[in-house]
Amino acid sequence: MENFVITGGHELFGEVNISGAKNAAVAIIPAAILANDKVVIENIPQISDVKLIIEILDSMGAGVKLLTKDTIEIDTSHISYQDVGYELTSHFRASYYLIGAMLGRFKKAEVAMPGGCNFGVRPIDLHIKGFEMLGAKVDIVDGMVCANAEKLIGASIYMDTVSVGATINVMLAAVLARGLTVIENAAKEPHIVDLANFLNSMGADVRGAGTDVIRIHGVEKMHGCTYSIIPDQIEAGTYMVAAAACGGDVLVKNVIPKHLESISAKLEEAGAEIIEYDDAVRVTRFKPLTKCNVKTMPHPGFPTDMQPQIAVLLSIANGTSILSESVWDNRFQYVGQLLRMGANIQVDGKVAVIEGVKRLTGVNVKATDLRAGAAMIIAGLVADGTTTVENINYIDRGYEDVVVKFSSLGADIRRVEVKEKQTIQTAG
Ligand code: EPZ
Q1: Phi, psi for 5 (deg, rounded to 5)
Q2: How far apart, in whole angstroms, are the C-alpha atoms of residue 173 and residue 98?
Q3: Is 253 exposed, middle or buried (0-12, 13-18, 19+ CB in 10 A)?
């Protein structure tokens, strides 16, 4: 197993290229099942969550060919219906998109309950409610979600909570249903829009993605297409926060600046300067960081998946910041690691009060989940001395070439082999 060893205290300078979006890729790849044809997907990120979903499709009989480093061809015309057991789904959350995609194509699905990062309770009641409203019968038997429908018929579905996963799953099940499906209080994240564009490229009729009402007219049949995945909003945001936290001048390339506005706004408030270009953002920071309050919200609010990273920046900013989490019940598990580095943070439920300190000090820390792992890297980069980050397999699930990318900006970060056995982590 491996750790990251980081020697902090360097400002970051240079350019970094952002990869395709993880949370779009893990929805778009299973969505190819609906095509019953050949689909070419470009800008695939080289991360372990994506490798897992590709392996699952391969094991179902989809011919998956690697055309270039980041382009795959998936032929789902010979795919056969099969159950997807726990050994395949337990390592990541997005395996539940197989339910929507298989239900859409085969009118039945049996998929083990998904794993994923532990932020407290992660129910799938809204997914189930959506499938049932489309006419499926859904049971959970021995940890398997079993969905069956004689036929799927469009329905009006109101989401009680804004849920990325439930919105995507209902979209997947509804594109081949008979008639009109309306999803109200839908999630608006960039990857929802990306999935809708992909489905439409395969012949679906999905309108309104990116607003809180999505209308899907069921079609008889879908077909193959070539599609390029959007850049990863959270990977981009992570490098932006790292640049602002360390200081320096970094051009974050291959991004959609509009997706980054909530992050840019908070970094400017904290003392960084942000310049937007057509497909890049430049982050410079040469003056001291100052406190700011951040509340996570569904898109277009500040993303919960950037909460641990911004906490590191606030922990070395002048003054007291309030960081509120409004999406997950328990997303401050990493705070204990930052306290060990000298941060002054008090957590009360879903609110963290962060009193800025002069410096963090390098110690051994653990990635407690994917984005917490990214935060530990940023903490190591700003800290005095050497930080060792353990459990980095979490980070590999969502960040392509993280050592190469940070090193190219002047960071001192290495991946080192260690003898101790670590347990397999789950993410997503
Ligand atoms: C997606 O998870 C992302 N994962 C998460 O990113 C992200 O944190 C989250 O959306 C919010 O943006 C993937 O896309 C694979 P939700 P998801 O359903 O879909 C409640 C990362 O780091 N809820 O939008 O599982 C739920 O408890 C990962 O890349 C229900 O009550 O999140 C939560 O409070 C981690 N019932 C809220 O909705 C349901 O049936 C939002 O969850 C479903 C969700």
Answers
A1: -115, 125
A2: 10
A3: middle
Whether the Cβ atoms of residue 382 and residue 33 lie closer than 8 Å to each other: no
Residues 114/92, Cβ–Cβ less than 8 Å: yes
Say which DSSP state 125 is in.
H
Q: Which tokens is 374 given?
A: 């990214």
Distance 27 CA to ligand 1 centre (A): 13
The pLDDT tens digits of the residues spanning 65-112 come to 999 999 999 999 988 877 777 777 777 778 889 999 999 999 999 988
- Catalytic residue IDs: 117
Give the three-class secondary structure for 117.
coil
Task: Quick: pLDDT tens for 155-198.
Answer: 999 999 999 999 999 999 999 999 999 999 999 999 999 999 99
Query: Atom 7 of ligand 1 has which residue's CA nearest to it?
Result: 305
Q: How far apart are CA 307 and CA 304, in angstroms?
A: 5
Q: What kind and span of H or E run contains 16? A: strand 12-17
Structure-block tokens of residue 395: 């980070």
Whether the CB-CB separation of 79 and 108 falls below 8 Å is answered with no
* Residue from 93, 95, 163, 172 whose mutation best tests the ligand 1 pocket (most atoms within 8 A of CB): 163
The beta-carbon contacts of 189-193 under 8 Å, at least 24 apart in sequence, are: 189/23, 189/164, 189/298, 189/299, 190/21, 190/24, 190/230, 190/233, 190/256, 190/259, 190/299, 191/21, 191/23, 191/24, 191/27, 191/164, 191/230, 192/164, 192/167, 192/168
Give the pLDDT confidence of 103-120 residue by residue, as tens digits.
999 999 998 887 666 776
Three-class SS of 342-398 = CCEEEEECCEEEEECCCCCECCEEECCCHHHHHHHHHHHHHCECEEEEECCHHHHCC
3-state secondary structure string, 30-60?
HHHHHHCCEEEEECCCCCHHHHHHHHHHHHC
Question: Which DSSP helix (H) or strand (E) runs through 67?
Answer: strand 63-68
In eight-state DSSP terms, residue 334 is T
Contact 77/59 with Cβ under 8 angstroms? no
Residue 413 three-state SS: strand
Phi/psi of residue 34, nearest 5 degrees: -70, -20
Q: How many CB atoms neighbour CB 147 within 10 A?
A: 24
Cα 298 to ligand 1 centre (Å) = 10
